[in-house]
Amino acid sequence: KSGTIAKVAEDSVIISTLPSSDEASASAGVLVSKIQQDVLELTKSGIYIVSPDDEQEVLHNALVEARAVIVLLSPGSLTVCQQLRVIAHSQMLHEASGSQLARPIPVSLPGFQFPGADYYKDVFPNVWGTYDNAHLQV
Fold first, then answer.
1. Which H or E run includes 22?
2. Buried b vs exposed e over 68-104: b needs ≥16 C-beta within 10 Å?
3. CA distance 19 to 80
4. How many CB atoms lie within 10 A of CB 14?
5. Are strands 47-49 and 13-16 parallel, antiparallel or unpaired?
6. pLDDT tier, 133 (very low <50, low <70, confident <90, very high otherwise)
7. What is the mean pLDDT of residues 89-113?
8. For residue range 77-96, what is the model confidence (pLDDT) as tens digits?
9. Following DSSP, what letter does each residue of 96-122 receive, concatenated?
């Protein structure tokens, strides 16, 4: 399942990837094909791939109800607000819940480089500034 919907099924496995990256999208497809059978044995809710069109409330509810949150990190991932909000929101929910909610599981794809000090000084404020922090309230 992918795209904007009113509600993501409770107990889903959520996958977030860089929507503009063909390699990241292909990696998400491979991951789904590899884990789908095992996921369906654990939960009938299945797998949901986050869409850039998802409303923030839908995303919040999906993260609250998720069995797992997998974030595929590819080159450019941390320059896109969607990826940052999934990472930050799921981590904040995990911590606020006393570790009862799913912690984001980062998966580093080939070519992804962890950011250095310049990223946090120059890039992050510009990307994060495009996101309304009020939606991160738990």
1. helix 22-42
2. bbbbbbbeebbebebbbbbbebbbebbeeeeeebbeb
3. 9
4. 24
5. parallel
6. very low
7. 89
8. 998 888 888 888 889 888 88
9. HTTS-SPPEEEEEPTT-----HHIIII
